[in-house]
Structures are given as C-alpha cells and as structure tokens.
C-alpha cells in the first residue's frame, strides 16, 4: 500500500524551470508534438498553446497539413520542420482505430526514441515500445481499455472506485509513470512514488482540458530533459507539478465561473508567475 504525498504549491515551485541569462531556445528544451488529426484538430491547438504558455524553448509540431495550418494560425512560433527534440508529447486528439501506418510509425519512433515522452489518448496502446522516461496520462476509461489489452479485467467504474490503487497497479504493470486523471489526479511510478494532486476546480470537467494538461507536462519534460537523462525518478514530481499548475490555471481562469479549455492554457503564465514568486 503506497503512502500518498499530497502535492502543494511549495512542492511544485522548484520544478518549474525559469530561464537565465545564458539560456537560448535550444538550451531551454524543444518539445516535439504529435497530436491532433483531421477528426480532432482542436486537441493539437490546445496542447501546443499550453506548451508555449508553460515556457519552453521551441515546439516542433508534426501532423496533417490541415492541422498544421490551424496550429500555425494560432501560434506562428511553432516550427513544423523536422529536427532534434528533447521530449515528446504524443497521442491526444486522434482516433486509435483510424491511425495510418505512417502515423503509427511516427508515434512508435517518438515513444521508442529514448527521450522523455508523454503518451496520451490514442497512443496509449503503443506504450510498450517505450525505452526512455515515459508518462502516460489516461482517464479512467482509457486506463481500463489499456489494461484490458494486457488481459487485466477491469472496468472504468472499478477504476473510479479505487483510482489510487489502479494507478499504482498500472505503473508496475506497464513500467511507466501513470498520471491518472479525474477530480483528483493520482501520479504513481513503478518504484513506489505516489503523489496526489487535488488543486483545481470541478469546472475542469470540460472537453479539451486533458489536451492542455498534455502540453503543460510536455513542456516540463522538455525543460528538464538533461536531469531526466540521469534520474528517471524526477518524472513523478514533474507530473504532479503539471497537474498542480493545470489546477491553479483553471482556478484562475474560472474565478468561480465556467471555463473552456483554452482559457486554462491562457491562464498559465499568470499562474506560473504567482507560483514562482515573480508576480
Ligand atoms: N477539441 C478537441 O479536439 C478534443 C479532442 N479530444 C480527443 O478526443 C479523443 C477521444 O477522447 P475521449 O476521452 O472522449 O474518448 P473515449 O474515452 O474513447 O470516450 C468515448 C466514450 O464516451 C462516451 N460518450 C460519448 N458521448 C457521450 C455522451 N454524450 N454521454 C455519455 N457518454 C458519452 C462513449 O460512450 P458510447 O456513446 O459509446 O456509449 C464512449 O464510452 C481523444 O483523442 C481526445 O484527445 C477530447 O480531448 C475533447 C476535445
Ligand atoms: N470533476 C472534475 N474535477 C476536477 N478536475 C477534473 C474533473 N473531471 C476531470 N478533471 C480534470 O480535467 C481533465 C480532463 O481530461 P480528459 O478526460 O483527458 O479530457 P479531454 O480528453 O476532453 O481533454 C483532467 O486533467 C482531469 O484531471
């Protein structure tokens, strides 16, 4: 039985990299993003927006031409030329049943690149290909179907009844860090780190907020890539920090009222300024 550490602002603060005078876009870290599809273009925009607003050196986006143009229309900073990256975010905004061979190849190459990777939504079934520091970000249904593929008979309702227990079991079974999304977020790693994040507002229960979380987490991995190369145990605190930041941005965006996912991404800079004491 894991003892769950409740993540606080004080815990999170030191996991957000603040650039110094000697930094440039490459030293801060480049995030490669393979998300979105013609069916779900919005997820790509939300993740890329959140990645930029969390603070990262560069985002390289890989996706269909139609989605690329939408991403560029929203964020001209994005680079769509292939090149080196320090971390990957893959899988949000796709339908696993409609992936082309080319796309499966791109997703698998990223997951097996050895770089830190966030695996979401329609790439979850490819996670066994991971070779480097890896975090999966399922919600209850996604975790149930992922475990079912490994012949573990569990329903989304079973996971909802014991999310912390299933997060731990999945981390051990899949040998990756699990960030299990829900009203509380449970982060578990295969060697027993267990962190719960309760920040946020129930207004987060709206479409696309998970895609925003992916972008935040991708940025945190890209900006800590060199430390992660030598210490994989940093993944769990980085995942918890992403969830806390997501929650704080949502509270700020909400102000007690409803939010849309893009509002959460837009509130990130102010939430980070407050968290890091620079407001
Ligand atoms: N803007 C974007 O681009 C966005 C893109 N997104 C992207 O979409 C992809 C799929 O993500 P997801 O989480 O929705 O997928 P999944 O777990 O398969 O859920 C399907 C289940 O939901 C249920 N269901 C459906 N309608 C229902 C209803 N009205 N009321 C009740 N239940 C209902 C349905 O049940 P059924 O209708 O089959 O009975 C089935 O069980 C993923 O790639 C994500 O990134 C999202 O982030 C959103 C914003
Ligand atoms: N009732 C809730 N209260 C607080 N946070 C929630 C609640 N429901 C979902 N969330 C959070 O909102 C996000 C939803 O992500 P996800 O289920 O992937 O949605 P989507 O696929 O539409 O982006 C997650 O970060 C999750 O932890």
TrEMBL record:
The keyword 4Fe-4S does not apply. It catalyses: (6S)-NADPHX + ADP = AMP + phosphate + NADPH + H(+); (6S)-NADHX + ADP = AMP + phosphate + NADH + H(+). Its EC number is 4.2.1.136. Keywords: ATP-binding, Kinase, Lyase, NAD, NADP, Nucleotide-binding, Transferase. Pfam families: Carb_kinase (PF01256). Gene3D superfamilies: 3.40.1190.20. One of its GO terms (molecular function) is NAD(P)HX epimerase activity. AMP binds at residues 181-185, 210. GO terms for biological process: metabolite repair; nicotinamide nucleotide metabolic process. Residues 8-275 form the YjeF C-terminal domain. (6S)-NADPHX binds at residues 43, 93, 139, 211. Its cofactor is Mg(2+). Homotetramer. HAMAP family: NADHX_dehydratase (MF_01965). Catalyzes the dehydration of the S-form of NAD(P)HX at the expense of ADP, which is converted to AMP. Together with NAD(P)HX epimerase, which catalyzes the epimerization of the S- and R-forms, the enzyme allows the repair of both epimers of NAD(P)HX, a damaged form of NAD(P)H that is a result of enzymatic or heat-dependent hydration. Belongs to the NnrD/CARKD family. This is ADP-dependent (S)-NAD(P)H-hydrate dehydratase. It comes from Agromyces atrinae.
